[in-house]
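Lecture notes, unit on protein representations.

Consider one protein chain, 169 amino acids long.
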Amino acid sequence: MRMDEPRRRPSPRAPRLWALTAASVWVPVLVVEVALTVAATSSALPALERWPRWIFAVVLAVSVAAAAVAIVVVPVWRYRVHRWDVSATAVYTRTGWFVQEHRIAPISRIQTVDTERGPFDRLLGLATVTVTTASAAGAVEITALDVETAHRVVADLTAVAAGTGEDAT
């Protein structure tokens, strides 16, 4: 049996989701670093006077560069890599941005199919479908799908898995 690469992409709004998620991590870090840099240069915190001021500027510059990559570059790169597909026999995913992972979950091994929507997902009208199998490798996730697509995938997988007549344990 020949396995084709998964063809379907996440929603076109997926890069925005991933950018918002990265920004929610990086913005607080940058705010703290800016506050420390200002405090160090204004002598507001005497304990910071022992450190050379250039160290704060270098740390802040490196953090800004890392945040820019995480917020701007990584979401676009991930969108180019992420793919998913569902056939009559399996669920296929390809994920990652630097390290790529291919996952295949046979329909006969499906135990549960769930939908998850975090705050950013809800804001953008997206959802993640999680397909749990008896695998030690864990669940297969299809991330950043339009809500309608996610509901259709859940319904289709549930119907197909129920129709196999096999126990997925």
